[in-house]
Amino acid sequence: MNEAKQARYLYSIVNTGEEKCLGNIGIGDRPVYTIVFQDIAAIVHTSEPEPENAKSEEQAEQWVLTHNYVIDKTIENFNTVLPFSFGCLAKGDDESIRRWLQKNYKSYKKELERLKNFAEYSIHIFYDPKVLEKQVIETIPELKEIDKKIESMPKGKAYIFKKKFELNLKQAIADQLTGLGEEFGVLVRENATQLIIEEKTPYVPEKYAGKKLMVALSCLVIQENVERLGQSLERINKREGFAVRFTGPWAPFSFVDLKENIEDET
Q1: pLDDT band at 140 (very low <50, low <70, confident <90, very high)
Q2: What is the set of domains in the chain, with CATH numbers?
Q3: Whole-structure pTM value
Q4: Each residue of 210-219: pLDDT tens digit?
Q5: CA 65 to CA 84: how far, in whole Å?
Q6: How wide is the angle at C-alpha 132 spanned by C-alphas 230 and 123, nearest 5°?
Q7: At what angle do helices 226-237 and 155-189 cross, to 10 degrees?
């Protein structure tokens, strides 16, 4: 087939010199296989040169799940991976991909060595605003005293004091969250090589309904530190009014950027 009429859908880069088929596990049940250059390989399936559009939202979601499933299988087979985001295509045939691997060999090999035995983990820390508010009032005598006095004040005076109380309480809660954030950050940084604060609000499971998200983190953690990180997070989880969602291991999507190299080839 003409090289210009071919493309390869990209899942990841891995450490292997083995030509291997992983089975019909790709998007649309396509065969997934390795294209090798020396001791690294691209995990791909064959594709048309133009991206295929999903016919429905459900199909799009299924494609994303399949993409991630293939990456999970490559981790099982090859341990360290450099994952591509969903939807990356490189135009050309297998030899085109091999030339691209040769061109970028040093940078890919360096990244594979850097990430050896590392994985990405997600940390979401939640708090109960009612519990935290109560704790803050109890620890600040001035707020506690005003809160008690408001109940016995005349209506007009009570209104003024209540507004003042609410402003002071809001600031005190913000200060408390800042301090706790620094404390929790130390516990995470002790065990994570890198961390990124997630800017987009993540999906919040039903079990955390009624709580507010304090912080969402993506962390790069070496295998030997995972248990210790889990123990540190459990200490936070046991604090009254707090809950921690700790998930992983995942491929290090947040700590690898292969897009620039791919755009040079597409």
Answers
A1: confident
A2: 3-116 (no CATH), 119-141+175-253 (3.30.70)
A3: 0.82
A4: 888 999 999 9
A5: 14
A6: 25
A7: 160
